[in-house]
Receptor lectin kinase
Amino acid sequence: MIEFQGDAFFNKVIRLTKDEFDTSIASSSGRAVYSQPIPLWSKTTRKLAHFTTHFSFLIKAANYDNTGDGLAFFLSPYPSILPNNSAEGYLGLLDSSSGSDQQSNNIIAIEFDTRQNWWDPSPDHIGIDVNSIKSTVTTNWYSSMKDGRTGNAWISYDASAKNLSVYLTYDDNPSFYGDSNLWYQIDLRDYLPENIAIGFSASTGSSIELHEILYWEFSSTREPKGLMFWAILLSLAGVFILVCACLTWIVLRRKKRQDSNNIEEGREPLLVAEEDDVIDYDELSGEFEKETGPRRLRYGELAVATKYFSEANKLGQGGFGGVYRGFLKKLKLDVAIKRVAKGSQQGKKEYISEVKIISQLRHRNLVRLVGWCHERGDLLLVYELMPNGSLDSHLYGKGVLLSWPVRFKVALGLASAILYLHEESDRCVLHRDIKSSNVMLDSEFNAKLGDFGLAKLVDHTGAAQTTVLAGTLGYLAPECFTTGKASKESDVYSFGVVALEIACGRRPVEPKEEKDKVRLLPWVWGLYGKNTILEAVDKRLDGEYDGKEMERLIVVGMWCTHPDYNLRPSIRQAMHVLQFEAPLPNLPPKFPVPVYISNLGDMGLSSMVDFGINESVISEMGKSGSSSTSSATIGPQK
């Protein structure tokens, strides 16, 4: 999955340089690299890939009067090799002896530089580096990059326009709409080989600071299957060139005619992200219509229902599109309509998964999918409207403060939904994205679990599935990072996090809290060991709660989030304790700290990397020096 080079290592987050302030950490450099090659372009077809990466990071200075040096996202020949003498201002990118020699270097990097060297324009700046540590283009950043705040960066490459762009924000609720702080027009084929390495690097000199990657998502297009094969075949003989050219002309003519018909009828082909196979909408509709329950809805009625997707009707923006309020006149029903962002390959995958899986499910604590629509280039999912929004909006946003009876009811309802998915439906469903923002509340504040875009159908043995690891910062079980496997136990872990959120009224990670309270789990466990667990209760409840129920919810939350998945309960066992049908478990007085040895070879390869962090402490992760190990995909934040 992730290969660590030099001083980089994993301890709760990706750490690119040495980070113990009380030890010798000067002149440190390191890299964290995706362990498999990424196809960038084809020599045969000259086709370039588009790509986008999003990551969150923080840089924290030990001494604001003497800081350095920064971090970078880079693309280099595969495999990645950390250069010698790459500390200080060379950011782990280039050897100091050749840092400005564009002829001998072979790297493209986007640097977030925090120290002014002789070649830099300012202490804090963003730069695009082309085969040199001296940036080709830069922009100054007029606030500190090294004060420990979380930054979110998006880096995109438009292969058609040959445009490499960078966007950085320190907003608390970051969003990306295609803006950029810096861009540079460059044909990457002129600088990089067909297959590349991608990753992060950082360095310190005599000035020191921490460099951490908190979250990473990378996606790219890939050359359609068979294109290389046909290119080779066409080169074998002129007669085959002629025959294939004729056949291609016929196929394209028919396809053009078909596409024209599709446009007239409001349809167009759908690309399934993982394999880049083209599926006709008629075929997809036929497959969906085999399912019971949700129905196909027409684009026109959904456009009218949402006042043509007006901003006034917009309820929110998710990872792969916006959600709009609407009213279906024929059904006399208020609905929430999720509109997948155009061009989002992962969004298309989730659209298909959502319809196929949720259509088979019926439970009072699951959000009901009313219908679906794929017309005019739009992918639309229509749900029953939840008048009271999401759970997180009440815990952290502008929603009403939830009383204790409502909170306990929500926890039981969520557990009931997961029990149905794991044990009571025809096939076991791993949700893989249980979090407070995916728990919706109806008019009576009953919990409804939604968003099945990342869900997987498995057999009822519940065996762990090596898959595209998916989830959200703070809710992923620790074993997911080392095995790449989803399981019932990882869903139970996510439930435990939500249970603690409900009881404590705070997020899994609160960077602005006191040091011992930043991470929810260790803090709560510390109180448990002191027999003062009720000190963790949400102060806004002002003591208005049932002490025994509260104790059970917190202890069950801890039990479910035990770092060792073998020691977690099933969701049924957790429910028995919550319903006073079983005694409280005996948990260790101190937060368990397991030692994981990274087994990267067990993980599967995909073209998207998404690295999230959870609140569990992973004290040691063995570094991998092998460039031949395969890699896991960690999916997007919603």
Observations:
- Confidence is low (pLDDT under 50) at residues 223-242, 255-281, 595-638.
- The longest strand covers residues 147-158.
- The two ends are 22 Å apart (CA to CA).
